[in-house]
Structure to design on (255 residues):
């Protein structure tokens, strides 16, 4: 109950912030975009992990205002980046239950004047499992205006290939759990190779998460993976550091 009260206050007291982890175009070795990651700086407890407070936010419905703030802030920050650098924002299944996702996205784009194709919404299978018509309708309407849609953590939950037909995905994200086992597990390598082949056949991009060493990077590139993120490239950083990072980067023309 105390954490719920504190979380309600956090939104109003400016205790929430966004950090950004870069996603690289592997062939060009250039930044293609950033994933927005939420942080809570509690005045007494210090930094609280999203793994602790996001489930509470989803349970209490606070995820709706927090999700709207995240979209507004991410779009406002991305509007300061060079043209063509995308920002990826995660959507929770609870946001579709407690809030108006479509209106929140349109409002964030309008206020920031960020181009729709520079915003990427990441959804997990938990969103798709809602099996609600408005989820598909919302994603399709946002896709129609140019917003990119990515399937996060592909293959880690109740995966079904029908999702790739029912929803307008532009990108599949290979979960870090697969990338972590690439070196030691032949079965994992086969799965990653299959996902990359499937995505290529469906004209979808793939980004591999959790790349931490050059061996995994070399394997992914040899199998045709075009984008990646992980500690090998950079940890998540606040906006001020991102702006400095981008001044030393060439403009990325990834479509």
């Amino acid at each position: 109950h105390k954490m719920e009260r504190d979380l309600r206050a956090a939104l109003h007291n400016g205790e929430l912030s966004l950090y950004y982890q870069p996603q690289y175009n592997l062939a060009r070795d250039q930044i293609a975009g950033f994933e927005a990651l939420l942080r809570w700086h509690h005045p007494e407890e210090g930094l609280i992990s999203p793994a602790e407070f996001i489930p509470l936010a989803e349970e209490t419905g606070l995820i709706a205002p927090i999700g709207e703030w995240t979209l507004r802030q991410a779009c406002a920050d991305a509007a300061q980046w060079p043209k063509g650098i995308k920002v990826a924002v995660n959507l929770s299944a609870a946001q579709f239950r407690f809030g108006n996702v479509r209106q929140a996205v349109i409002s964030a784009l309008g206020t920031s004047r960020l181009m729709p194709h520079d915003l990427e919404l990441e959804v997990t299978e938990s969103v798709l499992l809602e099996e609600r018509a408005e989820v598909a309708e919302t994603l399709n309407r946002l896709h129609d205006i140019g917003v990119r849609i990515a399937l996060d953590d592909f293959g880690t939950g109740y995966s079904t290939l029908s999702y790739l037909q029912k929803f307008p995905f532009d990108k599949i994200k290979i979960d870090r759990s697969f990338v972590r086992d690439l070196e030691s597990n032949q079965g994992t390598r086969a799965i990653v190779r299959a996902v990359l082949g499937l995505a290529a056949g469906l004209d979808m991009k793939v980004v591999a998460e959790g790349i931490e060493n050059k061996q995994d990077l070399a394997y992914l590139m040899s199998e045709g993976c075009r984008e990646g993120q992980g500690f090998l490239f950079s940890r998540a950083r606040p906006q001020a550091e991102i702006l400095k990072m981008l001044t030393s980067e060439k403009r990325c023309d990834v479509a």
